[in-house]
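Working notes for the structural subgroup meeting. M.R. asked for a predicted model of this chain before we commit to crystallization trials. I am recording the input and output together here so anyone reviewing the notebook later can reproduce the run.

Input as submitted:
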Amino acid sequence: MKVKSKNTFLILVSALLLAGCQAPMHNNTIVKPIATAVANTQKIAANLDSDGDGVLDDEDKCPGTPINVMIDENGCPPSLLLEGHLKMEYRAFFAKGSSELSKAYQLELDKIAEKLQEYETATMRIEGHASEDEISATDTGLQLSSLAENRALIVENYLIMQHQIDPDRLSTVSYGAERPIAPSDTEEGKSMNRRVYGVAEDPLN
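Returned structure, recorded in token form:
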């Protein structure tokens, strides 16, 4: 009986020791993957670039930038404001064969207009451009130039009609397809060439 009792006691002690050793392992198999999943989720969230402009959300000072808008290292359209001096660049891109200014580029133009109203002596030069594929073999270069000109004029007229900017402060020029900024052998390159480029600037005092 003493031997049996001793064996029973040893079995109970061994069982308790095994239970104590296995509990942390059990906890580790549950807690560790959850902690890893949370860390991975936080890492993914931190690496988001919601507007796709190449600048991560936690560093992007201009969230929601429209597609094809040129941006600086802060994720904002390029602008330079110095004491007594204004210089802002504007870019708008168009669908093939169209001179319709989309809502996104109207909003960007509204910002330009605000600065033109603030700097009353500032002027703006507006360039119209087109891509080579926007004319057919039977069309002429004049038609391509006309499309580029219409794009520049739509921007000029928006500033005049929507923001009452004096027409004498605005100038337009059409370059047709003469000044591409991207190769014309890809669709992406062609779309980048269907554009308006403008510079609003106030002379240094």
